[in-house]
Write a structure and sequence with these properties.
By secondary structure, the chain is α/β, with parallel strands linked by helices. It folds into two domains: 159 residues, DHBP synthase, CATH 3.90.870.10; 164 residues, Rossmann fold (3-Layer(aba) Sandwich). Helix 11 packs across helix 12. The longest helix has 14 residues. The C terminus is likely disordered.
Length: 373
């Protein structure tokens, strides 16, 4: 796990890493942030022709398909390869204009591991991969030994999301009175790679809680929660959830570091720009190579275990949250809807969540919200 964590930080810094798949070595470079000189050095180190690894969502926009979650696109050696072309292929808003790749191939283990690391690092899910030739192996080995290149087992990297399960650390806590719930305690948890920190907001007297503890899983939304963005209803849902939990005698709100349905703030803003061209929230994420919802709730299950909570009343409109808790061994005794206001600014967003992601929003979209306005 330690090497995988280091790999995530190297990739975020724009550095290449080596993934080992049995005897094969594969150089991996994130597409995001790459420049022409970095690309040239990468290809020189590997000694073999490169490929672009993308998700099946991005591949579909490029006009291809594979029976796999990711694809390897051999890059053409008949045309000069530059960063502009790579960016157009990997996350450009007009992916059909540049066809400098061969027939799509199902991604191998190292390729899938590369994409998993990109997602974990909150980067665009696209990577340049190049197999290390026999002639280049001595030089690569030297760079690894001197610490210039990090070497990671591909089978460890491909499971980088699952590897942190059960390793969440309870770091610090303090009383933080809130406008909607003055008796509130914040408990901070940190994931082992140090990238994400989650907060459990414990409301009211634990001894007076209901048998089924009122619970809200709230994914962080900087634009909505802090700045009051009109593009979503997240800020209102957050404050309404705290008030509702307090009115029910107390419970827990888990504030999860999963900005933009798990794609991170940088990619969320990219998706917003795509939405301004006419795409809905789901299609914008897919244009960038992401799935409908990239969130994971293992951290939430671990936080509930640390708090001794096994049975909950869940405040949500999202069926995936309910199923994730049940899959994690948490009994969901009941569900309560939670709404913000429907406005001209967030109507398209909420409609897409309902129609494309199956969220239970019929009441609010029909103009008959039973929750707070």
């Amino acid at each position: 796990m330690h090497q995988v964590e280091r790999a995530i930080f190297d990739l975020r810094r724009g550095l290449p890493i080596v993934l080992n798949d049995g005897p094969a070595q594969v150089l991996v470079q994130p597409v995001e942030g790459i420049d022409d000189s970095t690309l040239e050095r990468l290809l020189d180190k590997a000694g073999q022709a490169p490929a672009l690894v993308v998700s099946r969502h991005r591949l579909a926009l490029l006009g291809g398909s594979v029976d796999a979650e990711a694809a390897r696109l051999p890059l053409s050696d008949t045309m000069p390869l530059d960063v502009r072309a790579l960016n157009a292929l990997a996350f450009g808003d007009d992916p059909q204009r540049d066809r400098r790749f061969g027939a799509p191939q199902p991604a191998g283990l190292a390729d899938r591991a590369a994409l998993a690391l990109m997602r974990r690092a909150l980067l665009i899910p696209a990577a340049i991969t190049a197999r290390v030739s026999d002639a280049a192996r001595p030089r690569i080995r030297q760079l690894i030994e001197e610490g210039t290149l990090l070497s990671v087992a591909a089978d460890k990297a491909v499971g980088c999301f699952e590897a942190s399960a059960g390793l969440l650390k309870r770091v610090s806590e303090a009383q933080v009175p809130l406008a909607e719930a003055q008796d509130s305690r914040f408990i901070l948890f940190r994931e082992p790679d140090g990238l994400r920190e989650h907060v459990a907001v414990v409301i009211g007297d634990i001894d007076a809680w209901r048998d089924a503890v009122p619970l809200r899983l709230h994914s962080a939304c900087l634009t909505g929660d802090l700045f009051g963005s009109l593009r979503c209803d997240c800020g209102e849902q957050l404050r309404n959830a705290v008030a509702d939990i307090a009115e029910m005698g107390g419970g827990v709100l888990l504030y999860l570091a999963q900005e933009g349905r798990g794609i991170g703030l940088a990619n969320k803003l990219r998706a917003y720009a795509l939405q301004d061209t006419g795409l809905d929230t789901v299609d914008a994420d897919k244009t960038l190579g992401f799935g409908d919802d990239e969130r994971h709730y293992r951290a939430a299950v671990d936080m509930l275990a640390a708090l001794g909570i096994e049975r909950v009343q869940l405040l949500t409109n999202n069926p995936l949250k309910l199923q994730a808790l049940r899959d994690g061994g948490i009994e969901v005794a009941d569900r309560q809807a939670l709404y913000g206001r429907l406005t001209d600014h967030n109507l398209r967003y909420l409609s897409a969540k309902s129609k494309r992601a199956g969220h239970w929003l019929d009441d609010v979209l029909d103009g008959h919200s039973s929750g707070r306005a």
